[in-house]
Amino acid sequence: MPSTDWNKLLEFESRDLIERYIQKNHGRKASARQVLEISSNFIQGREYFRNAQNAALTVKPLLQYYGVSALTRGLILASSPTVSEASMKPSHGLDTVNWQQSLAKKDFGSLVVSVKKGTFSELMQATGNRAYFKHNSSAIDWHIDYNIPPDGFSFTFLDLVQTLPDLEEEYKTWKEVKMDTVITSGFQNIDDDKFEFVIYPPRKNEEAIKNLFPESILGNYEYIDNGSLHTIRTKNIYTPQFSQKFFHPLNAGLRQINLTKPIKYIVHLSPIGQLYTMAFFLGMLSRYFPSVWIGLGRTEKGDAIFPLLSKSIDLIDNYFPSVVCEYLNASFKT
What we know:
Distance between the termini: 29 Å
Number of helices: 13
Number of domains: 1
Low-confidence stretches: none
Strand order of the largest sheet: 8-9-7-6-11-10
Shape: globular
Strand content: 15-25%
Largest sheet: 6 strands, antiparallel
Order of helices and strands: HHHHEHEHEEEHHEEHHEEEEHHH
Helix content: 40-55%
Number of strands: 11
């Protein structure tokens, strides 16, 4: 986890700097209560992350989720000056659904969560489910607004994993199939009802392209081979998920944008929503099913998913604080 991200978040443990932030971003004077609530959540988030880094794997996901939750609440409070701790729901914003049945079969992919009132839904409201992206850049250079997932919407762990291109290799190890994901430079609306996607490299991704642009949804689409690039033009408003790939193979300071399948149907999650939900899955699994969680790290049946879970923990540890910084400081505020 880059120390510069935590140094930036230290600004939200300072009374003077919180007051300056609220004045600059919201045009109002911060109250003493507001300053205390924002700073307290950021302080707790930092301490939870610090303790998670030093903790054994048996308890690390739970401490990490508490850190994610605290930073998320701090972000909500800083982004929504009319919101207070008293008005926030004391719940995760996600519910586990019938996990006992799935875990009895070690079917981790079918673990279901459902959206409800709480921190997750408040995060979606505070950020508008806006996705900020870095593409071959160390600074945000693109964004897109997704619809906010409705209360009661449910999806599986597999639905979530397939939207995280950083887990591509671990997904293949676990499921013995390739993740459907391709690199993109974004998309544009080229007329009233036609969208254009540019993807690369071309030929080796034909199967992924067919799965990302399913004929059952899109019907026929225009497919243009430009050599090193592919252009896909479709008249349907359906879009795959735009997902941030955090790790860049050539430069640790750069990132890229990948297309993946949506969370489910036409529901998409921003990077902060993806990482929050992953932390929730792992935290709840380690907290309420410790025998299953601990067994995964001790060569027990069903542990083919273990490398993916371990990589997910690293992903949250390294990038969640960075993503929170991006939302606090993004230049695309409107």
